[in-house]
Amino acid sequence: MFTLNDDERAIGETARQFADEFLAPNALEWDERKHFPVDVLRKAGPVGLGGIYVREDVGGSQLRRLDAVRIFEELATGCPAVAAYISIHNMATWMIDAYGTEEQRHRWVPGMASMELLGSYALTEPGVGSDAAALSTKAVRDGDDYVLTGAKQFISGAGANDVYVMMVRTGQEGARGISALIVPAGTPGLTVGPNERKMGWNAQPTRQVILEDARVPVANRLGAEGDGFAIAMNGLNGGRLNIAACSVGGAQAALDKTVPYLAERHAFGKPLARNEALQFDLADMRTELEAARTLLWRAAAALDAGAPDKVELCAMAKRFATDAGFEVANKALQLHGGYGYLHEYGLEKIVRDLRVHQILEGTNEIMRVVVARTLTGAA
Questions:
Q1: What are the residue numbers of the active site?
Q2: What confidence tens digit (pLDDT) does each residue in 226-280 have?
Q3: Which run of H or of E encompasses 184?
Q4: Structure pTM?
Q5: Nearest C-alpha neighbor of 354 from the set 378, 377, 328
Q6: What is the C-alpha separation between 167 and 156, in angstroms, rounded?
């Protein structure tokens, strides 16, 4: 796991080259303009970034989750916000590939793997946060269609995408009444709200999705009725790892900016890098990132293997890596002093982008609940 072969190194180098060429030079401008770089996303498909762990027969790269976390770490060094959207797109694409019929797979996945079609994942609702099993968006069967009524909240890519993998209530209250549907963005009765004004992640849109008697064919359902919650949770295992990897990559970029800055900046007659207290800060930052990366790779390998403790490990890695990533980026800003607070240095953007990683894909408080339940056997 810790010694990369030539193929694994090449995969990481390809992702880093994409980040260096297309993401890093534009990240600050995209953030300032709140611009969603669809043209750049289209370039990600041909290099295999649209269907990283999707099967090859529908255009995917068919890589491992262990490869994926390395890819997302490298992408996030260029722009955590865009890397995170690519992660969400991959989660939606994988759900169709993993749970769809052959007809569904061949209809939707090739376009998503090439990123000609952009995908979003729609679980969260305005009145339902961490308690996802309580979602209330209804899908009522009417002949060969479901009629959808309700709203989804905090949907990344909404308004600029082509397809949603959406969790809806087709049956009883609770997790067993939830189903998963493929919902085209152009479905009559589906509208989106204004782009949310956010602290970070400005390079991708976040909108509410509103459903008013929106008709979706029953043929667009993934799995059987009632399978949706399990599908959603299985998707989130990988999503949590990917967003954790984005935190590690963003924080690594912040650390990489900090070391040369401290070497060049002088105070009290010597470079700041010769200050022992600041050296200790750098050592702690490096150690926290390496610990996060190690746990992340361990969890990804467990997910690849279908290990019994994969859910617990994914939760642990998400909690630890997103906390560590934010703290390292925040410390990097502090070590830059007043310059760290300036937009042009890029530190404050990384801090703003990484902060939301501690909230989404299951808050870090919920990650602790997942781990604690495993330890105690609580339901």
A1: 361
A2: 999 999 999 999 999 999 999 999 999 999 999 999 999 999 999 999 999 999 9
A3: strand 178-184
A4: 0.96
A5: 328
A6: 15
